[in-house]
Design goal:
It comes from Variovorax gossypii. The protein is mainly beta and 171 residues long. It has a domain of 111 residues: Sandwich (Immunoglobulin-like). It is 8% helix and 27% strand. The protein has 1 helix and 8 strands.
C-alpha cells in the first residue's frame, strides 16, 4: 500500500496531537500585599452664628417690654465651651443700659436685662471659663431673652436707644 506524502501537513498534525496530550499549565500571577495606616487628628472646634438684632420695639415706660433673639453654636463632640455676653455700654452684665445720642446727658439711658430663660431669672453673664457647655457635634440653638423693666419715666425721655453687646464663645 502506498501512503501518499502530505509533506509538512503530517508534521504539523503530529505537533498538534503532541501538544494536545501534554498537561495544561495555567499562567499564574504572583501577588504581594501590605498594609498602611490612615490617621487624622480632630481638633476642638466651634462655630457660632450671629444673632439678629434684639429689637424691643416701642416702649411705654409704665409697662415692662420683652423681646428675644437666637443664635446657634456647633462644637466638635466633647469640646467644652462657654458663652459670654458683655455689659455693653454700661460695662455691667447685671445693669445693662441702652443709651441715646440725642437725649440730654444724665437722662439718656434705658435699663434692660438679657437672660438665658423665658422667666427672666438667669442673667447672661460674661463667662469665659470655657466649661459651661459640652459640644455634641450638632448645632445647638440658644435664645437670648431681653426685658426692659417698667417705671423708667424719669431717666428715659422719648427718643431712640441702642446698645451693642459682644457675644464671646470660648472653647
Amino acid at each position: 500500500m502506498n501512503i501518499p506524502r502530505l509533506g509538512g501537513a503530517i508534521a504539523t498534525m503530529t505537533a498538534v496531537v503532541a501538544l494536545a496530550v501534554l498537561p495544561l499549565q495555567s499562567a499564574q500571577a504572583t501577588t504581594a500585599t501590605t498594609t498602611f495606616k490612615v490617621t487624622a487628628t480632630v481638633l476642638s472646634s466651634c462655630a457660632m452664628s450671629t444673632p439678629d438684632t434684639l429689637a424691643f420695639g416701642s416702649f411705654t415706660p409704665g409697662t415692662a417690654l420683652t423681646g428675644s433673639t437666637a443664635f446657634t453654636v456647633q462644637c466638635t463632640y466633647g469640646t467644652t465651651y462657654s458663652l459670654g455676653m458683655s455689659g455693653g455700654t454700661s460695662g455691667s452684665v447685671t445693669a445693662r443700659t441702652m443709651t441715646s445720642a440725642t437725649a440730654t446727658s444724665g437722662y439718656n439711658s434705658l435699663s434692660y436685662g438679657l437672660y438665658k430663660d423665658s422667666t427672666y431669672a438667669t442673667n447672661w453673664s460674661n463667662s469665659t471659663t470655657g466649661t459651661d457647655y459640652t459640644g455634641t457635634g450638632s448645632a445647638v440653638t440658644y435664645t437670648v431673652y431681653g426685658k426692659i423693666p417698667a417705671a423708667q419715666y424719669a431717666v428715659a425721655p422719648a427718643t431712640d436707644y441702642t446698645d451693642t453687646i459682644t457675644l464671646t464663645l470660648t472653647y
